[in-house]
Structures are given as structure tokens and as C-alpha cells.
Amino acid sequence: MPFRKLNNVQMDILKETSNIGMGHAATALSQMIGQPVRLRVPHVTITEISQVPEYLGGAEKMMVGITLQVLGDARGSIMLLFPQESAHRLICNLIGDQGMTLIMNEVTISTLKEVGNILASAYLSALGNMLHKTLIPSVPLLAYDMAGAVVDYVLIDLSKSSDLAMLVETDFIGESPSDLAIKGHFFLIPDPSTLDMFLCVAGESQ
Amino acid sequence: MSEQVSIAEARIERAPTVLKAYGLGSCVAVGLYDPETRLGGMGHMLLPNRPSNSPLGSESKYVDAGIYQIVDELVRAGANRKTLVAKITGGANMFETSYQTLINSVGARNAKSARRTLGDLDIQIVGEEVGGNRGRTVEFDLATGKMLVYCAHTKEPLSL
Q1: Most buried of A12, A29, A166, B41, CB within 10 angstroms?
Q2: Cβ of B1 under 8 Å from any chain A Cβ?
Q3: Is residue B27 annotated as part of the catalytic site, yes or no?
Q4: Domain count, chain A
Q5: pLDDT digits (tens, 9 = 90+) for B67-90
Q6: Residue A103 and residue A99: Cα distance in Å, rounded?
Q7: Please, which contacts does A106-113 make with residues 24 or more away whose CB atoms are closer than 8 Å?
Q8: CA distance B67 to chain A (A)
Q9: Can you give the CATH number for the domain in which A135 is found?
């Protein structure tokens, strides 16, 4: 299905499923870091593939990206992005003070991957329950680099079948004063064929 | 003056323009330059090979078709086909991986496709900085034909 043909109802279905999935993930995250985590209402963006890095705040912005494949009854990818300051705060919250800046070592990498794993699993299990499908996350992979470089690998997959990318994006924000908050973007990038199934099943259950 | 080359784009310009591509991961940037006329072009390409059934107009998404497109446009703009030289960068594998088969390093295949296509066209590759697991930002200066490659984790750019 070409992404541009999605109608408002279908967009709402995607938003709502993402909202529920992310709600579970946010609960998991807030339990991990011991503080409330707020969600911004998810938005579904359909955009030219070439515009995605701009959309993330610029291709050169330093980000930690954690990606997982969705396996099982549906296919797609999940990409979690943390701006470097947020990744740093997240790590400090989880494993104690880590100095002034983000340093990548075995412990920090593994911590961030585990965060990705927990969030993705919570999200996929909520989504799977709703759709009566089995959705399994793969092993998480991590990159710490420029935003453009981190996301182009997902875009490459998408660009095989389309010039457009559909991103279901949810932002989450920690409760502390805004400049110290932990911010992140969560993207679900379904394969075009999976999207059909998604909308079909979710539409019926409404 | 500088011009951005976004993902899946290819463009040609003449000196003194600087062509820039930001945040290359597995994508490759191929710069082509004619030192005599100081005409040059750069593509920011995602996929190694253009399938025969792909729609027209999507050439710059593919390394092979994108290179042909740039060469065509350069020659039409007055560049000398015989003196064209090429520089390649990008083609990283950003995510260290334990399931190679799923990813099968598209970055490496992109770089390979660029070398093969340039070889077929008999265009000499005079600079190359590809592979690894780092993102790159590229500046291709058409006044000099120099390509600067910036990485996030190193201070000094590499000059090709």
C-alpha cells in the first residue's frame, strides 16, 4: 500500500495503537528510572525519505540510536533515538554518576541496549495483544553518531519499496525541570506489507 | 556558496560551490570532478543497484544509476568526460551486528557498486574513505576538487 493513501481513520488507528504500546513502554521506563515519564500524543508522519534527518532535528545532531527488528507475525523496525544529553542523564539515573559527558563503554552501551530492549518489548507485547499477533523484538543494536548516519540504515530498508517513509513517533519526557528532562523519540517503521495487515486487524477490532 | 545534497539526491554545480552531504551512514557519497572546467557533481545514494523495474526519476537513489546520471549531466554542462575523476566516501556499517545476514552490510555493497560502476565508465578513483562504523559529513569543494570528510568522533577532517 502506498503510504500516501492512508485516510484519517487509518492514521487514527495507527496513532491509537502506538499510544497504547508506548503507554506500556513508558510505565516500564518510569519504573526503571524511578520518576514519572510523560508521553506526548503520538503522531504519524509520512514524509519523503530525504527529509527524515531534518525532521529529527538535523543530520549532524549527535544521537544514540538503538534499533531492533520486529520479528514474528509482522515485520518492521523499531528505532529509539536519544539525544546525547538525554542518553547521558538516562545512564546516570540507572547506574549512578558517570561524569560530565556521555562516554561509551561496555557498561553504558549494554545499559542503553537494555533500555531499548525493555521499551521495545513492552511496546510490542501491548501491540501484539491488541492485534492478536505475536511480535518479537530481535537483539538490539546500538550506534552513537550523527542522526543522519544512525537513521539511514532504516531508510535504506524502506527505500527499496518506497520513496516515502512512514514514522509513528512518540516522544517521552522525564518529569524533571525541562532542561534536565530525558527526551527520546520512538519510531515504529512497519514494512509496507505489514502495514496492510496492521490496519486490517486494528480496523476490525474497533 | 554551499549546496546541500540530501539523501537520494544528486546534483551538479560549478566552482566555487561547495557541495555538502550531512550524516552519511551506510549511504555513499560519490563526487565527480572535472579539473579543467571545474564542474563537479555529487550524489548521496542509498542502495547499490537500480532494479530494472524501478520507476524513472528515482535514479539518484541508486549508486550505479546515480553515477551515470551525474556523468551525463556533467558532460551536458560542458565537462570533459575524459578528465573526470571520482572520490568516494561513506558506506559504513553503523550498527555492530550479531546478525549479519539480516543487514548484510548494505554500506559495503554500496561502496562496491560505486567502484564497479566507475570502473565500467573508466573513471579514475582518486580518493576513497569508506567502511568502518562511523558517520561522515562530506564537503566537496568545486574550486579545488578537494573533498573533506568529517567524523563525529574525531576533530580534524580528512582531506581526499
Answers
A1: B41
A2: no
A3: yes
A4: 1
A5: 999 999 999 999 999 999 999 999
A6: 9
A7: A109/A142, A112/A64, A112/A66, A112/A82, A112/A87, A112/A142, A113/A66, A113/A140, A113/A141, A113/A142
A8: 18
A9: 3.40.1550.10
Q: What's the structural domain count of chain B?
A: 1
**Per-residue pLDDT reduced to its tens digit, A27-48:** 888 888 787 877 776 677 777 8
Could you give the count of Cα atoms lying within 13 Å of B95 in the half-sphere of its Cβ? 26
Grid coordinates belonging to A169: 513517533
> Min CA distance, B81 vs chain A (Å)?
29
Q: What is the pLDDT of residue A194?
A: 76
Tell me which residue range forms the domain holding B112.
2-159
Chain B CB contacts of A164 under 8 Å are none
Cell of B15: 566552482
Query: Of A140, A108, A109, A111, which is closest to residue A124 (Cα–Cα)?
Result: A140
Task: Measure CA A87 to chain center.
Answer: 14
Task: Give residue A179's pLDDT band: very low, low, confident or very high (50, 70, 90).
Answer: low
Rg (CA), chain A: 16
Q: With an 8 Å Cβ cutoff, is B8 touching chain A?
A: yes
Rounded to 5 degrees, φ, ψ at B63 are -60, -50
Give contacts of B 64-123 with A, CB under 8 A: 92, 94-99, 102-103, 106
Q: What is the rounded CA–CA span in Å between residue B142 and residue B151?
A: 21
Whole-angstrom distance, CA of residue A172 vs CA of residue A82: 10
Q: Give CA–CA dist A46/A127, Å, rounded.
A: 21
Q: What residues form DSSP beta bridges with A186?
A: A80, A170
- The pairing of strands B9-14 and B136-141 is unpaired
The CATH code of the domain that includes B102 is 3.30.1330.200
Q: Residue A40 corresponds to which amino acid? A: R
What are the two backbone dihedrals, phi and then psi, of residue A188, each rounded to the nearest 5 degrees?
-110, 125
Range of the domain at A146: 3-204
Question: So what's the ipTM on this one?
Answer: 0.86
How distant is the alpha carbon of residue A154 from its chain centre? Answer: 12
pLDDT interval class at A176 (50, 70, 90): low
- Closest CA–CA distance from residue A175 to any residue of chain B (Å): 30
User: 560519490: which residue's cell?
Assistant: B30
